[in-house]
What does this fold into?
Amino acid sequence: MTAAARTLPWSWYSDPEILRLEQERIFRRAWQYVGHTGELERPGDRFPAWAGDVPVAVVRGRAGELRAFLNVCRHRGSILVAGPGRRESIQCPYHAWTYGLDGSLLAAPRSEREPGLDLEGLALRPVQVGAWGPFVFVNPELDAPPLEDALGELPALATAHGLDVDALRFRERRHSSLAANWKLALENYLECYHCPVAHRGFSALVNVDPEDYGLEERPGLWSQFGRGRDGAGACQFHLLWPTFRLNVFPGSTNASVGPLRPDGPGRCTGFLDYFFGEGVEEEAAGELLALDDEIGREDRALVEAAQLGVDSGLLEHGHLLPASERLIAGFQEHLSLALDRGGLREAKGGG
Ligand code: FES
Ligand SMILES: [Fe+2]
It folds into this structure.
């Protein structure tokens, strides 16, 4: 028998210092999903986004190239792009400094009347940007390896399990917010041990018996594979480090993807972009959205209740099932290494 593994210390789900480390060592350095190419069809199209607590503006450049910048004015720091739109330039709402789509500073009102003012060389701080099919990602760290490296085996795996990302058409975005630490939300996502207990609708659709529900772990990528009951087809659910989830349900061509971002130690917000294949019936799309809303409501109750317990302060950690919850163990190990806390075993104090 294997002893139940320890979870991360429960203090890590409310400690502001842990969140500060996570922002610095995870969210400022990792590739994160921000939106889809349908929002960036023509030169000048742009939208604001977040990579953790880093504000980012994603832009379609003059020659059709994807660009991303820190969404912060070089003058006195205002957020530049407040909402989606299309314009020839990026103009700050505060004092109207105007930047080109390549980030260079083009004009600053009254600058010609200010002797000794030198704006030469001021430009928006670039942010790395890349796309996989319609999915757009950014990384604030300019020295980080390219998106392809971060995606690893995910594109090949998704394809092998029946997803063609180029066949997807965006339908809608749904936002969510949870009174729980971002890690609790993702750990809940990484196990289907709770599915028979808490997700009746989902368990009626997908065979969630352990022998028929595959869990696979790769560096920075945790995947679950199932089959619909009644021959409804395959499903796959992936978490790509740190917060990108890709969900494919059984049935007509579909996928939903989205990030999560901490909103303080005990809160997180996120969204899911829902895509369907061309010609998927309205009714089928509506049913899937309704089912996913139901799953979302069920998960919210579970995760928020777990946050209350984890915050109680009288227990130091929880326990994990070695098989059914091994993706959580992998995620927690990855996280503690990213925080440079010497690996999970050491962080947990052994035993
Ligand atoms: S802060 Fe942007 S123009 Fe002043
Ligand atoms: Fe769930």
Observations:
- The longest helix spans residues 282-310.
- Confidence is low (pLDDT under 50) at residues 344-351.
- The domain at 32-143 is CATH 2.102.10.10 (Rieske Iron-sulfur Protein).
- The two ends are 15 Å apart (CA to CA).
